[in-house]
Amino acid sequence: MSKGITPWEFELEQVDYVRIVEEFGLQPMTSELLKRMKNKHRLFERKVIFAHRDFGLILDAQDKGQEFVVLTGMMPSGKFHFGHKLIAELMAWYQEQGIMLYIPISDIEADVIRGIDADSCREIVVNEYILNYLALGVDLVSKDKCCLYSQWRNDLVRNLSFKAASKVTFSQMHAVYGFSNSDNMGKIFFPLIDAADILHPQLPERGGVKPVLVPVGIDQDPHLRVSRDIAPRLGMIKPSSIYTKMMSSLQGRGTKMSSSKPETAIFLTDTIEVVKQKLKDAFTGGRETIQEQKRLGGQPEKCVIYEFLLFHFEDELLESTYEKCTSGALLCGECKAVVSKRIVKFLEEIQRKREEAKSLLPKIYENQLI
Ligand code: SF4
Q1: Number of compact structural domains in the chain
Q2: What is residue 4's predicted lDDT score, i.e. its pLDDT?
Q3: What separation in angstroms does the CA of 84 have from each of 80, 276, 288, 361?
Q4: Mean pLDDT of the chain
Protein backbone atom coordinates (compact mmCIF):
# COMPACT_ATOMS: atom_id res chain seq x y z
CA MET A 1 0.00 0.00 0.00
CA SER A 2 1.38 3.39 -0.96
CA LYS A 3 2.04 5.49 2.14
CA GLY A 4 -0.79 7.85 2.99
CA ILE A 5 -3.33 6.54 0.45
CA THR A 6 -6.08 4.10 1.45
CA PRO A 7 -9.82 4.28 0.85
CA TRP A 8 -10.09 5.72 4.37
CA GLU A 9 -7.31 8.29 4.42
CA PHE A 10 -5.50 10.41 1.90
CA GLU A 11 -2.70 12.48 3.32
CA LEU A 12 -0.30 13.28 0.57
CA GLU A 13 1.22 16.70 1.04
CA GLN A 14 1.97 16.99 -2.62
CA VAL A 15 0.13 14.92 -5.19
CA ASP A 16 2.55 13.64 -7.81
CA TYR A 17 0.50 11.88 -10.46
CA VAL A 18 3.48 10.54 -12.37
CA ARG A 19 4.69 8.86 -9.19
CA ILE A 20 1.19 7.57 -8.42
CA VAL A 21 0.92 5.96 -11.86
CA GLU A 22 4.27 4.23 -11.35
CA GLU A 23 3.73 3.22 -7.74
CA PHE A 24 0.20 1.89 -8.22
CA GLY A 25 1.07 0.11 -11.47
CA LEU A 26 -1.56 2.10 -13.38
CA GLN A 27 -1.47 2.83 -17.10
CA PRO A 28 -1.28 6.52 -18.09
CA MET A 29 -4.16 7.84 -20.20
CA THR A 30 -2.31 8.18 -23.49
CA SER A 31 -3.24 10.26 -26.52
CA GLU A 32 -3.48 6.98 -28.53
CA LEU A 33 -6.26 5.78 -26.26
CA LEU A 34 -8.00 9.14 -26.35
CA LYS A 35 -7.87 9.13 -30.15
CA ARG A 36 -9.85 5.88 -30.13
CA MET A 37 -12.76 7.58 -28.35
CA LYS A 38 -15.44 8.74 -30.77
CA ASN A 39 -16.56 11.48 -28.41
CA LYS A 40 -14.85 12.61 -25.25
CA HIS A 41 -16.07 14.13 -22.03
CA ARG A 42 -14.07 17.26 -21.14
CA LEU A 43 -12.47 15.36 -18.22
CA PHE A 44 -10.72 13.16 -20.80
CA GLU A 45 -9.81 16.12 -23.03
CA ARG A 46 -8.29 18.06 -20.14
CA LYS A 47 -6.40 15.09 -18.68
CA VAL A 48 -8.33 15.33 -15.41
CA ILE A 49 -8.74 11.61 -16.03
CA PHE A 50 -5.06 10.82 -15.89
CA ALA A 51 -4.75 7.04 -15.65
CA HIS A 52 -6.58 3.75 -16.11
CA ARG A 53 -6.51 0.02 -15.81
CA ASP A 54 -7.61 -1.83 -18.96
CA PHE A 55 -9.62 1.07 -20.36
CA GLY A 56 -8.78 -0.46 -23.76
CA LEU A 57 -11.25 -3.28 -22.97
CA ILE A 58 -14.04 -0.71 -22.75
CA LEU A 59 -13.01 0.92 -26.02
CA ASP A 60 -12.86 -2.54 -27.66
CA ALA A 61 -16.42 -3.24 -26.47
CA GLN A 62 -17.55 0.15 -27.76
CA ASP A 63 -15.89 -0.46 -31.16
CA LYS A 64 -17.58 -3.86 -31.48
CA GLY A 65 -20.94 -2.60 -30.23
CA GLN A 66 -20.72 -4.99 -27.26
CA GLU A 67 -22.29 -4.42 -23.89
CA PHE A 68 -20.37 -2.91 -21.00
CA VAL A 69 -21.58 -1.19 -17.84
CA VAL A 70 -20.31 1.64 -15.63
CA LEU A 71 -20.26 1.42 -11.84
CA THR A 72 -19.43 3.82 -9.06
CA GLY A 73 -20.38 3.89 -5.40
CA MET A 74 -22.03 6.53 -3.23
CA MET A 75 -20.18 6.75 0.07
CA PRO A 76 -22.59 8.54 2.42
CA SER A 77 -20.01 9.98 4.78
CA GLY A 78 -20.65 13.71 4.46
CA LYS A 79 -21.45 16.58 2.15
CA PHE A 80 -21.45 16.34 -1.66
CA HIS A 81 -18.77 18.64 -3.07
CA PHE A 82 -17.34 19.57 -6.46
CA GLY A 83 -15.03 16.54 -6.42
CA HIS A 84 -18.05 14.22 -6.21
CA LYS A 85 -19.66 16.22 -9.02
CA LEU A 86 -16.95 15.04 -11.45
CA ILE A 87 -17.90 11.39 -11.06
CA ALA A 88 -21.65 12.10 -11.16
CA GLU A 89 -21.20 14.02 -14.42
CA LEU A 90 -19.24 11.14 -15.96
CA MET A 91 -22.00 8.74 -14.95
CA ALA A 92 -24.61 11.00 -16.58
CA TRP A 93 -22.46 11.21 -19.70
CA TYR A 94 -22.14 7.44 -20.06
CA GLN A 95 -25.83 6.97 -19.34
CA GLU A 96 -26.72 9.45 -22.11
CA GLN A 97 -24.85 7.15 -24.48
CA GLY A 98 -27.08 4.23 -23.52
CA ILE A 99 -24.70 2.60 -21.03
CA MET A 100 -26.29 0.88 -18.01
CA LEU A 101 -25.16 2.26 -14.65
CA TYR A 102 -24.68 0.42 -11.36
CA ILE A 103 -24.59 2.60 -8.25
CA PRO A 104 -24.14 0.86 -4.91
CA ILE A 105 -24.87 2.92 -1.82
CA SER A 106 -22.04 2.05 0.57
CA ASP A 107 -24.24 1.82 3.63
CA ILE A 108 -22.41 -1.22 5.00
CA GLU A 109 -19.14 0.72 4.85
CA ALA A 110 -20.84 3.76 6.45
CA ASP A 111 -22.07 1.60 9.32
CA VAL A 112 -19.20 -0.83 9.85
CA ILE A 113 -16.23 1.44 9.23
CA ARG A 114 -17.44 4.96 9.83
CA GLY A 115 -20.04 4.28 12.54
CA ILE A 116 -22.82 6.25 10.81
CA ASP A 117 -26.23 5.09 12.05
CA ALA A 118 -28.97 4.01 9.60
CA ASP A 119 -31.10 7.19 9.89
CA SER A 120 -28.15 9.55 9.39
CA CYS A 121 -26.93 7.42 6.51
CA ARG A 122 -30.30 7.54 4.79
CA GLU A 123 -30.54 11.30 5.29
CA ILE A 124 -27.08 11.85 3.77
CA VAL A 125 -27.80 9.48 0.88
CA VAL A 126 -31.02 11.25 -0.06
CA ASN A 127 -30.09 14.89 0.54
CA GLU A 128 -26.47 14.87 -0.48
CA TYR A 129 -26.19 12.15 -3.09
CA ILE A 130 -29.48 11.16 -4.69
CA LEU A 131 -30.80 14.70 -5.12
CA ASN A 132 -27.47 15.95 -6.48
CA TYR A 133 -27.10 12.98 -8.85
CA LEU A 134 -30.61 13.65 -10.14
CA ALA A 135 -29.90 17.38 -10.47
CA LEU A 136 -26.71 16.61 -12.40
CA GLY A 137 -28.69 14.58 -14.91
CA VAL A 138 -28.32 10.96 -13.76
CA ASP A 139 -31.55 8.98 -14.19
CA LEU A 140 -31.73 6.96 -10.97
CA VAL A 141 -35.34 5.91 -11.50
CA SER A 142 -35.47 3.93 -14.77
CA LYS A 143 -34.53 0.35 -13.93
CA ASP A 144 -33.30 -0.31 -17.47
CA LYS A 145 -30.84 2.58 -17.19
CA CYS A 146 -29.61 2.41 -13.64
CA CYS A 147 -29.39 -0.09 -10.81
CA LEU A 148 -29.16 1.95 -7.60
CA TYR A 149 -29.05 -0.24 -4.52
CA SER A 150 -28.25 -0.46 -0.84
CA GLN A 151 -25.43 -2.88 0.03
CA TRP A 152 -27.40 -4.04 3.07
CA ARG A 153 -30.39 -4.94 0.89
CA ASN A 154 -28.64 -6.54 -2.05
CA ASP A 155 -28.54 -10.32 -1.49
CA LEU A 156 -26.58 -10.91 -4.69
CA VAL A 157 -23.79 -8.64 -3.47
CA ARG A 158 -23.69 -10.03 0.06
CA ASN A 159 -23.64 -13.64 -1.22
CA LEU A 160 -20.95 -12.81 -3.77
CA SER A 161 -18.79 -11.23 -1.07
CA PHE A 162 -18.47 -14.65 0.64
CA LYS A 163 -17.56 -16.33 -2.64
CA ALA A 164 -15.01 -13.57 -3.23
CA ALA A 165 -13.65 -14.13 0.29
CA SER A 166 -12.85 -17.73 -0.60
CA LYS A 167 -10.67 -16.57 -3.50
CA VAL A 168 -8.27 -14.35 -1.60
CA THR A 169 -5.99 -14.86 1.41
CA PHE A 170 -5.55 -12.64 4.44
CA SER A 171 -1.96 -11.92 3.49
CA GLN A 172 -3.06 -10.70 0.03
CA MET A 173 -5.62 -8.40 1.65
CA HIS A 174 -3.10 -7.21 4.19
CA ALA A 175 -0.63 -6.36 1.43
CA VAL A 176 -3.22 -4.14 -0.24
CA TYR A 177 -4.90 -2.52 2.78
CA GLY A 178 -2.17 -2.64 5.41
CA PHE A 179 -4.53 -3.63 8.25
CA SER A 180 -3.36 -3.23 11.83
CA ASN A 181 -3.88 -5.68 14.69
CA SER A 182 -6.45 -3.37 16.26
CA ASP A 183 -8.67 -3.29 13.14
CA ASN A 184 -11.97 -5.03 13.73
CA MET A 185 -13.10 -7.85 11.48
CA GLY A 186 -15.72 -5.60 9.88
CA LYS A 187 -12.97 -3.40 8.47
CA ILE A 188 -11.07 -6.46 7.34
CA PHE A 189 -14.08 -8.09 5.66
CA PHE A 190 -15.64 -4.95 4.23
CA PRO A 191 -13.36 -4.65 1.16
CA LEU A 192 -14.87 -7.93 -0.04
CA ILE A 193 -18.31 -6.29 -0.08
CA ASP A 194 -16.81 -3.56 -2.20
CA ALA A 195 -15.23 -6.15 -4.51
CA ALA A 196 -18.62 -7.87 -4.76
CA ASP A 197 -20.20 -4.54 -5.76
CA ILE A 198 -17.68 -4.18 -8.57
CA LEU A 199 -18.02 -7.78 -9.75
CA HIS A 200 -21.75 -8.40 -9.39
CA PRO A 201 -22.84 -6.88 -12.75
CA GLN A 202 -21.13 -9.97 -14.23
CA LEU A 203 -23.33 -12.47 -12.36
CA PRO A 204 -25.73 -14.59 -14.45
CA GLU A 205 -28.62 -12.80 -12.67
CA ARG A 206 -27.27 -9.53 -14.14
CA GLY A 207 -26.88 -10.86 -17.66
CA GLY A 208 -23.51 -12.57 -17.29
CA VAL A 209 -19.87 -11.76 -17.90
CA LYS A 210 -19.15 -8.36 -19.41
CA PRO A 211 -16.64 -5.48 -19.15
CA VAL A 212 -17.27 -3.16 -16.20
CA LEU A 213 -15.83 0.36 -16.05
CA VAL A 214 -15.30 1.96 -12.63
CA PRO A 215 -14.52 5.72 -12.58
CA VAL A 216 -12.89 6.53 -9.23
CA GLY A 217 -10.49 8.72 -7.32
CA ILE A 218 -7.07 7.19 -6.77
CA ASP A 219 -7.84 6.57 -3.08
CA GLN A 220 -10.30 3.84 -4.14
CA ASP A 221 -7.74 1.91 -6.18
CA PRO A 222 -7.15 -0.78 -3.52
CA HIS A 223 -10.73 -2.01 -4.08
CA LEU A 224 -10.02 -2.25 -7.80
CA ARG A 225 -6.82 -4.20 -7.24
CA VAL A 226 -8.59 -6.77 -5.08
CA SER A 227 -11.55 -7.05 -7.47
CA ARG A 228 -9.22 -7.55 -10.42
CA ASP A 229 -7.36 -10.30 -8.57
CA ILE A 230 -10.58 -12.11 -7.72
CA ALA A 231 -12.45 -11.70 -11.05
CA PRO A 232 -10.67 -14.42 -13.09
CA ARG A 233 -10.96 -16.84 -10.15
CA LEU A 234 -14.75 -16.44 -10.44
CA GLY A 235 -14.70 -16.76 -14.25
CA MET A 236 -15.25 -13.03 -14.72
CA ILE A 237 -13.48 -10.31 -16.72
CA LYS A 238 -11.14 -8.07 -14.72
CA PRO A 239 -12.95 -4.78 -14.16
CA SER A 240 -11.51 -1.69 -15.85
CA SER A 241 -11.05 1.64 -14.12
CA ILE A 242 -10.34 5.27 -14.88
CA TYR A 243 -8.88 7.69 -12.32
CA THR A 244 -9.74 11.35 -11.87
CA LYS A 245 -7.33 13.73 -10.24
CA MET A 246 -8.30 14.81 -6.73
CA MET A 247 -9.72 18.31 -6.44
CA SER A 248 -7.60 20.44 -4.18
CA SER A 249 -8.78 21.91 -0.92
CA LEU A 250 -9.75 25.59 -1.13
CA GLN A 251 -6.74 26.14 1.10
CA GLY A 252 -4.20 25.10 -1.51
CA ARG A 253 -3.16 22.67 -4.23
CA GLY A 254 -1.79 19.35 -3.04
CA THR A 255 -4.35 18.86 -0.25
CA LYS A 256 -7.70 17.22 -0.83
CA MET A 257 -11.25 18.56 -0.54
CA SER A 258 -13.04 16.87 2.31
CA SER A 259 -16.75 16.31 2.73
CA SER A 260 -16.37 16.65 6.49
CA LYS A 261 -14.32 19.90 6.48
CA PRO A 262 -16.44 22.82 5.24
CA GLU A 263 -13.44 25.14 4.94
CA THR A 264 -11.82 22.87 2.33
CA ALA A 265 -14.64 22.55 -0.20
CA ILE A 266 -17.68 24.07 -1.82
CA PHE A 267 -20.68 21.86 -1.18
CA LEU A 268 -23.51 21.77 -3.70
CA THR A 269 -25.90 22.57 -0.83
CA ASP A 270 -23.95 25.58 0.45
CA THR A 271 -25.85 28.87 0.45
CA ILE A 272 -24.75 31.42 -2.13
CA GLU A 273 -23.41 33.74 0.62
CA VAL A 274 -21.27 30.93 2.04
CA VAL A 275 -19.94 30.05 -1.43
CA LYS A 276 -18.96 33.65 -2.13
CA GLN A 277 -17.10 33.88 1.18
CA LYS A 278 -15.32 30.55 0.65
CA LEU A 279 -14.14 31.69 -2.77
CA LYS A 280 -12.97 35.05 -1.39
CA ASP A 281 -10.81 33.15 1.12
CA ALA A 282 -9.55 30.55 -1.40
CA PHE A 283 -5.85 30.11 -2.12
CA THR A 284 -4.64 31.48 -5.47
CA GLY A 285 -1.50 31.41 -7.54
CA GLY A 286 -1.22 35.18 -7.27
CA ARG A 287 2.07 36.98 -6.62
CA GLU A 288 3.07 38.85 -3.46
CA THR A 289 2.29 42.29 -4.86
CA ILE A 290 0.14 43.79 -7.63
CA GLN A 291 3.29 45.06 -9.34
CA GLU A 292 4.82 41.59 -9.38
CA GLN A 293 1.58 40.07 -10.67
CA LYS A 294 1.49 42.59 -13.53
CA ARG A 295 5.17 42.04 -14.32
CA LEU A 296 5.42 38.23 -13.96
CA GLY A 297 1.80 37.09 -14.39
CA GLY A 298 -0.03 34.75 -12.01
CA GLN A 299 0.60 31.02 -11.54
CA PRO A 300 -2.53 29.11 -12.58
CA GLU A 301 -0.82 25.77 -11.98
CA LYS A 302 -0.77 26.62 -8.25
CA CYS A 303 -4.21 28.20 -8.14
CA VAL A 304 -7.34 26.64 -6.67
CA ILE A 305 -9.58 29.10 -8.53
CA TYR A 306 -8.05 28.09 -11.84
CA GLU A 307 -8.49 24.44 -10.93
CA PHE A 308 -12.24 25.02 -10.59
CA LEU A 309 -12.30 26.28 -14.17
CA LEU A 310 -10.11 23.43 -15.39
CA PHE A 311 -12.22 20.72 -13.78
CA HIS A 312 -15.68 22.18 -14.23
CA PHE A 313 -16.28 24.97 -16.67
CA GLU A 314 -16.34 25.86 -20.34
CA ASP A 315 -13.29 26.12 -22.61
CA GLU A 316 -13.73 29.79 -23.39
CA LEU A 317 -13.58 30.96 -19.77
CA LEU A 318 -10.72 28.57 -19.02
CA GLU A 319 -8.61 29.75 -21.93
CA SER A 320 -9.22 33.48 -21.47
CA THR A 321 -8.44 33.24 -17.75
CA TYR A 322 -5.20 31.38 -18.43
CA GLU A 323 -4.10 33.88 -21.01
CA LYS A 324 -4.94 36.97 -18.94
CA CYS A 325 -3.55 35.46 -15.73
CA THR A 326 -0.18 34.44 -17.14
CA SER A 327 0.25 37.69 -19.07
CA GLY A 328 -0.33 39.76 -15.93
CA ALA A 329 -3.46 41.37 -17.34
CA LEU A 330 -5.68 39.87 -14.63
CA LEU A 331 -5.48 40.35 -10.86
CA CYS A 332 -6.72 37.72 -8.48
CA GLY A 333 -9.52 39.80 -6.94
CA GLU A 334 -11.02 40.50 -10.35
CA CYS A 335 -10.56 36.87 -11.42
CA LYS A 336 -12.21 35.54 -8.26
CA ALA A 337 -15.21 37.79 -8.87
CA VAL A 338 -15.68 36.38 -12.40
CA VAL A 339 -15.24 32.76 -11.33
CA SER A 340 -17.45 33.26 -8.30
CA LYS A 341 -20.21 34.57 -10.58
CA ARG A 342 -19.87 31.49 -12.80
CA ILE A 343 -19.96 29.06 -9.86
CA VAL A 344 -22.95 30.84 -8.32
CA LYS A 345 -24.82 30.64 -11.64
CA PHE A 346 -24.16 26.89 -11.77
CA LEU A 347 -25.20 26.37 -8.14
CA GLU A 348 -28.43 28.35 -8.50
CA GLU A 349 -29.38 26.10 -11.39
CA ILE A 350 -28.43 22.92 -9.51
CA GLN A 351 -30.30 24.02 -6.41
CA ARG A 352 -33.42 24.62 -8.53
CA LYS A 353 -33.04 21.18 -10.13
CA ARG A 354 -32.58 19.58 -6.68
CA GLU A 355 -35.93 21.02 -5.63
CA GLU A 356 -37.58 19.65 -8.78
CA ALA A 357 -35.92 16.26 -8.26
CA LYS A 358 -37.65 15.82 -4.88
CA SER A 359 -40.78 14.76 -6.78
CA LEU A 360 -38.84 11.67 -7.98
CA LEU A 361 -37.99 10.43 -4.47
CA PRO A 362 -41.26 8.49 -3.94
CA LYS A 363 -40.51 6.53 -7.12
CA ILE A 364 -37.04 5.70 -5.81
CA TYR A 365 -38.50 4.60 -2.44
CA GLU A 366 -41.11 2.58 -4.31
CA ASN A 367 -38.33 0.73 -6.11
CA GLN A 368 -37.11 -0.12 -2.59
CA LEU A 369 -33.64 0.88 -3.51
CA ILE A 370 -32.87 2.92 -0.42
S1 SF4 B 1 -5.52 35.60 -11.71
FE2 SF4 B 1 -7.01 33.99 -11.37
S3 SF4 B 1 -6.11 32.15 -12.21
FE4 SF4 B 1 -4.47 33.64 -11.99
S5 SF4 B 1 -3.55 33.20 -10.01
FE6 SF4 B 1 -5.07 34.80 -9.68
S7 SF4 B 1 -6.97 33.71 -9.15
FE8 SF4 B 1 -5.56 32.26 -10.05
Answers
A1: 2
A2: 45
A3: 6, 20, 33, 20
A4: 90
Distance CA 103, CA 198 (A): 10
Question: How is the chain split among helix, strand and coil, in percent rounded to 5?
Answer: 55, 10, 30
Are 245 and 192 found together in one domain? yes
Q: Kindly give the number of the ligand 1 atom that is closest to the alpha carbon of 286.
A: 5
pTM above 0.85, yes or no: yes
Report the distance separating Cα 347 and Cα 313, nearest Å.
12
* Residues 245 and 257 placed together within one structural domain of the fold: no
Whole-number Å distance between alpha carbons of 273 and 365: 33
The last residue of one of the domains, among 249, 282, 307, is 249
Share of the chain above pLDDT 70, in %: 95
- Final residue before a domain boundary, out of 189, 217, 249: 249
Question: Quick check: CB of 284 below 6 Å from ligand 1?
Answer: yes
Please name the amino acid found at residue 201: P
| Same domain, yes or no: 234 and 256 | no
Which DSSP helix (H) or strand (E) runs through 249? strand 248-249
Q: What is the pLDDT of residue 254?
A: 67
Antiparallel, parallel or unpaired: β 100-105 and 146-150: parallel
194 touches 73 (CB < 8 A): yes
The amino acid present at 73, given as its one-letter code, is: G
Q: Is 332 in the pocket of ligand 1 (CB under 6 A)?
A: yes
Q: Is 367 contained in some domain?
A: no
Q: Is the CB of 298 under 6 A from ligand 1?
A: yes
Based on the domain organization, do 310 and 189 belong to the same domain?
Answer: no
Task: Determine the pLDDT at residue 209.
Answer: 98
What is the rounded distance in angstroms from the CA atom of residue 73 to the CA atom of residue 16?
Answer: 25
Confirm if 63 and 112 have CB atoms less than 8 A apart.
no
Give the separation between CA 55 and CA 73, rounded to whole angstroms.
19
Q: Are residues 101 and 245 in the same domain?
A: yes
**Which atom of ligand 1 is the closest one to the Cα of 336?**
7
Q: Which residues contact 334 (CB under 8 A, 6 or more apart)?
A: none
